[in-house]
Amino acid sequence: MSDTYSIETRYSVKFTTENPVPISKIVESLVAYEKLLRRTPRFIERAYPGIQIIETQVLVDHIESGSLIEDFVIRYVFKSDENYDNFKESVAKIMDDNGALKTLVAIGMGAIIGYGIFTYVGHNPAKTHVEAYNNTIINIGSDIEFTADDVQAVLSGMKDKKRLIKQTIHALAPAKTDPNSAVEVNGVEAATIPKEVLSDVPAEYEPPPPREIEEHYDNVKIEVFASDRDKTTSGWAGIVPGIVDTRVKFSLQDEVPPSFLHGQTALRANVTVVSRLKEGKSYQPVLVEIRHVFMPQSTATQATRGD
């Protein structure tokens, strides 16, 4: 029951560039394609119930210059999961028709790369050609009974989106040396990535800006517009003149007693301004965390006298 099996298939891409591609771009692409191909076992496990892939080996079989061709051999080592009957049936299907496996790998790679590009460009209505490419990949899947739901189920399990975007951009780097280049997939013509889709891919990877940033300010004036003597994270709002000039939510750290700050309208404090990235690629303050409050002199005097 614990026997392991292996099967090989091929995946080949051709960059239709007119001029030779720099060696650095070829190496960058090969390394990235290896990482992307290592994501394809999820598609195979989805298509062939009972199979558990335990190792994926990616080998470069051939590289050809001119219009750059990268030819890979992928070896999958697998065993049975808990359902041995499904495993036997799936093994028989794989061994009987390697062409279906090759198509499945092409579908998986097309879906992965399309998802990487779509994640990078975001839900921009103008990027309809990216959606059209993804739909094409789904239609190819119907030829081997791999449905849109199957594709979506696999893609939804890919949580490392930043790494996926980086791998996608690096894999397609040779195509960016020629604005008219496409990326053809040998044996699965419909999976070709057209130049219109590639136009949305940057030539170099740049890490996306952080979704939120924090900026710390000490001994600045704050104005309190709303307060709650019993709570620290709700019911509070105000501004930090010259820094945050529109009303924003306040929150108090544990060392700042709400009962003391309640009723105050203007005082000085150490604060942290939390800003969030908006659609226009600019940051907008969404929260001011009050870390420390400087007690007004009159209040300090009263407190001393009270002792």
Write a concise keyword list for the protein shown above:
single chain; 307 residues; four-stranded antiparallel beta sheet; alpha+beta; 9 strands; elongated; OB fold (Dihydrolipoamide Acetyltransferase, E2P)
Can you offer a commentary on this structure?
36% of the residues lie in helices and 30% in strands. It has 307 residues and is α+β, with helices and mostly antiparallel strands. A five-stranded mixed β-barrel has the order 5-6-7-9-8. A four-stranded antiparallel sheet has the order 2-3-1-4. The chain is elongated and about 85 Å long. The protein has ten helices and nine strands. Residues 299-307 have low confidence and may be disordered. Strand 2 and strand 3 (69-80) form a beta hairpin.
Strand line-up of the largest beta sheet = 5-6-7-9-8
Radius of gyration: 28 Å
Unreliable sequence segments:
299-307
Give the termini separation: 80 Å
Specify the number of helices.
10
Question: Which descriptor suits the 3D outline?
Answer: elongated
Structural domains: how many = 2
**In terms of structural class, how would the helical and strand content be classed?**
alpha+beta
Question: What is the string of SSEs from the N terminus onward?
Answer: EHHEEHHHHHEHEEEHEEH
The residue fraction in helices comes out at 25-40%
Share of β-strand residues: 25-35%
By DSSP, the count of extended strands is 9
- Report the sheet with the most strands, covering strand number, pairing sense and barrel closure: 5 strands, mixed, barrel
**Overall average residue pLDDT:** 87
